[in-house]
TrEMBL record:
Domain spans labelled Beta-lactamase-related: 34-361
Organism: Streptomyces osmaniensis
Protein's recorded name: Serine hydrolase domain-containing protein
GO molecular function: hydrolase activity
Keywords per UniProt: Hydrolase
Length: 385
């Protein structure tokens, strides 16, 4: 075992352990994190590091939660319960207010709706409740004409698609996820953390930027009424800091589908492995046509909220376009603000999950994922030869 690194790797994946150890050696002494990967349904990487961090420790994974929400939608589309090109108002008539009546579920999933938040914003308590998020958004005037552009619906997309799921099935998105995905596979990826699992939760620690990094953060232009501030609800005084969002028991208990999930790296990677691969003689959750559709790019170009180039598939981030271009076309997944990353590369059968406890600089997928994903992907390709 490499000093300070726990867990196992399959034959041929030893370079992944070495890369993980090299990264951890350069981190702060209190680093805690986990890395897990599957190839064609076989667990090939299962590593963790840090005092207090165990293989089954649970972390707030912020927007990596969205991957679970989109997988629920993909299953319902696959079986015909939901139709991507049907108008949202078919299930949710009230959503048609303020010019949103022509919007389809496909538009909504690809971040083209234009309702990234509320003019008045949400309270902290409301952000812990998907129904409290969704209901007022039905009356919100879009911030751009629906369908003409796209922008990241950071805090609300899970609630919006969750309301469509609830109205179509009579079940909450969280209930469908628990019954169809999490429980059958025993995944440590929870949209609603049971009280008895609370001792395994490791609270998110705040970002610890270097002086140079802090100077960059301080110099980043911000404003209280920008699309980004509305999308991340920072225009509301007293609504709470993003870093503390999953540290709220109310958030962990209800599991808001945009950013309230709690998971281990095993849980993240295991979910994507189940989506694309046979596991324990269970067939993949998604059929090949569905895998192709969710990974197909639906929105690409300048993201009006993020203010840089991004690409989305059917909900999922199209990460082989703008994050890890060496991955196979059609790779799909989602990162989280605190540093987590999770995805599937169906072309080589790879499923990847990473968590860390301390909020990463500068937010989004932690930069160490660049080297870790490279190492895992190289090993996965080598194992297939």
């Amino acid at each position: 075992m490499t000093q300070g690194i726990h867990g196992t790797v399959a034959d041929g994946f030893e370079p992944v352990r070495e890369e993980f150890a090299a990264f951890v050696a350069g981190e702060l002494p209190d680093y805690e994190g986990q890395l897990c990967a599957y190839v064609h349904g076989r667990k090939v990487v299962d590593l963790w590091a840090g005092d207090g961090c165990e293989a089954d420790s649970l972390h707030g994974v912020f927007s990596s939660t969205k991957g679970a929400a989109y997988l629920v939608v993909a299953l319902l589309v696959q079986e015909g319960t939901l139709e991507p090109d049907r108008k949202v108002t078919y299930c949710w008539p009230e959503f048609g207010a303020e010019g949103k009546g022509t919007l389809t579920l496909r538009d909504l999933l690809s971040h083209r709706a234009g309702v990234v938040g509320l003019d008045a914003g949400f309270t902290g308590a409301e952000l812990a409740d998907d129904r409290a998020i969704a209901e007022p958004l039905a009356d919100q005037r879009p911030f751009w004409r629906p369908g003409t552009a796209f922008g990241y619906h950071a805090f609300v997309i899970g609630a919006l698609v969750g309301e469509v799921v609830r109205r179509a099935t009579g079940r909450t998105l969280q209930e469908v996820y628990e019954e169809r995905i999490r429980a059958p596979y025993g995944l440590d990826f929870h949209l609603g953390l049971p009280e008895e699992l609370e001792p395994r939760y490791r609270s998110v620690q705040p970002m610890a930027p270097t002086p140079e990094q802090q100077a960059v953060l301080d110099a980043t232009p911000t404003g209280p009424h920008t699309l980004a501030s509305i999308a991340f609800n920072t225009h509301v005084p007293g609504a709470g800091e993003l870093v503390d969002y999953p540290n709220s028991r109310a958030v962990r208990a209800s599991g808001p589908a945009s950013a309230g999930g709690v998971a281990s790296a095993r849980g993240l990677a295991g979910m994507y492995a189940a989506a694309i691969s046979e596991i324990d003689e269970r067939p993949p959750l998604l059929k090949p046509d569905t895998i192709a559709e969710v990974g197909q790019i639906h929105s690409t170009g300048y993201d009006l909220v993020a203010r840089f180039h991004k690409s989305f598939g059917l909900g999922f981030q199209a990460i082989s376009d703008y994050v890890y271009p060496f991955l196979g076309a059609g790779s799909f997944g989602h990162s989280g603000a605190g540093g987590s990353q999770a995805f599937a590369d169906p072309r080589c059968g790879l499923a990847y999950g990473y968590t860390r406890r301390r909020f990463a600089y500068p937010g989004g997928a932690a930069p160490e994922n660049d080297r870790l994903v490279h190492a895992v992907h190289r090993a996965a390709l080598g194992s297939a030869q």
